[in-house]
Amino acid sequence: MNHFADKLTAAVKAKGNPVCVGLDPRFDLLPKEIQADAEKKFGKSPRAVAEAYLVFNKALLDALADLVPVCKPQIAFYEEFGADGIRAYDETVRYARAKGVLTISDAKRGDIGSTAVAYARAHLGGMEITGGSGVGFDADALTVNPYMGKDTLQPYLDIGVTNGKGIFVLVKTSNPGSGDLQDLEAGGRPIYEHVAEMVNALGAKHRGASGYSPVGAVVGATYPQQARALREKMPESIFLVPGYGAQGGTAQDAALCFRNGAGAVVNSSRGIIFAYKQDPYASRFGESRFAEAARAAAEKMAEELNAALKA
Length: 311
Description:
Layout: H1 4-15, E1 19-21, H2 32-42, H3 46-64, E2 70-71, H4 76-79, H5 82-98, E3 102-109, H6 113-124, E4 127-129, E5 132-134, E6 141-144, H7 150-162, E7 166-172, H8 179-182, E8 185-186, E9 189-190, H9 191-203, E10 215-219, H10 224-233, E11 239-241, H11 251-255, E12 264-268, H12 270-273, H13 281-285, H14 290-310
Parallel strand pairs: 1-2, 1-12, 2-3, 3-6, 6-7, 7-10, 10-11, 11-12
Antiparallel strand pairs: 4-5, 8-9
Helix pairs in contact: 2-3, 3-5, 3-14, 6-7
C-alpha cells in the first residue's frame, strides 16, 4: 500500500478510532524525574532538553502505539533547541514509524519553486545527493500553508505522491484569529472556501482505493458550522482536526468534520501527553505513571469521538 490516504484510513479502521496524538513536549511540564536525569547527564543545556524529550516521547509511544493510528509532532517545540532538538524530532518520527504509528510533521511549510521542492524532499522523502540518494525526516505527511498560491503546493503533492506521503493544507484553522484572513470575503465568499476548492481540485486525480486523496485539510473543531460546510466542499479530503479539548472543541463538533463516520483524524496534544497533570488522571496515576495517564486520556477521547460519530 503506497497511498497515504489509504494507509491512514486503514490505520484508523484497524485501531478503531480517529485519535491523533500531538507530540508537543515542553521541558517545564515533563515529569521531574525525567528533567532531573537529563540535567544530571548533560547539565542545563539543549542536549538535556532533547534527551528528555526523547525519553518522554518514546514512553508515550510505547504506551499508545497499539491504540492511536497517527501522531503529530509540532516541529517548533524541537527547533527551539537547535541541532539537538532537531535530532530529537527526527528520532521521534523514526521511533513512531517503527512502532507502527503514522506521522504528520506539523511544520506548516510553504514557499515557491525550488525552495518548496527542498522542503518537500526534507519532510516527505526523495532528497537528491550526487551519486546517491537519502531520506530526511521521513514523516508520512506534512502540514502546508497555501497562502502563497497553488504553485507552492504542487511540489509537496508531486513528491508526496511519488513517495506514498500526504499533505494537510491549512484551510480553516482552530485559533481565535483565524478569521483575520481566512474569513475575509473575495468574490462574495470567504477565503477559506476558495482554499477548500483549491484543495479539492489538487487531489482530484490522486484518489486512492479508500476514495480519499493525499491532499488533506486542516479544519478546526472550534468552528463547527464552517467545518460542516467545508466537508461538503472537500468530500475526498481527509481532515486533520485541531481544537478538540483544551481549545474548546467537543467530540460533537469534531464529528462534523467526518463523512459517513470516516475521513478525519482529531488531534489532541496536551490533553493526552500531559494528562497526568490533570484531573482525574493526576490523582489516579501521578507523575511516575505519566504514560499510563496518557493512554487513559486517549482511550476516553476515542470513546467520546466514536460515540459522537454513532449519534
